[in-house]
Design brief:
Blueprint: E1 2-3, E2 8-9, H1 16-51, H2 62-73, H3 78-95
Antiparallel strand pairs: 1-2
Helix pairs in contact: 2-3
């Protein structure tokens, strides 16, 4: 309430509370604008990622070559080689 003794409103001299409210409005505005920019950047990145074709592979991957060399040295048998090649193939399909 108004205090007639010193001419202030609950101890808020010269509108000090309005300065605090102005700062809060500024911070809120910056927060909202920053959030909108972040959302737009995420949407743009996700749209770009979905339209970019996967890179073309021109031969066996290093993992395939490693498996082939282990098979050639006799470290793994044919059944294990085939099962591991299948696991690699499925992993590549999942990444696309």
């Amino acid at each position: 309430m108004w205090n007639d003794d010193n001419g202030s409103w609950n101890g808020m001299h010269d509108g000090g509370a309005w300065v605090g409210m102005g700062l809060m409005m500024l911070l809120t505005t910056l927060l909202v604008v920053g959030l909108l920019v972040w959302i737009l950047a995420m949407l743009r990145d996700s749209r770009h990622a979905s339209t970019t074709p996967p890179p073309a592979t021109t031969g066996p991957s290093p993992a395939d070559e490693h498996l082939a060399s282990r098979f050639a040295r006799g470290e793994i048998d044919a059944a294990e080689f085939e099962s591991r090649v299948e696991v690699l193939r499925l992993a590549r399909l999942d990444r696309r």
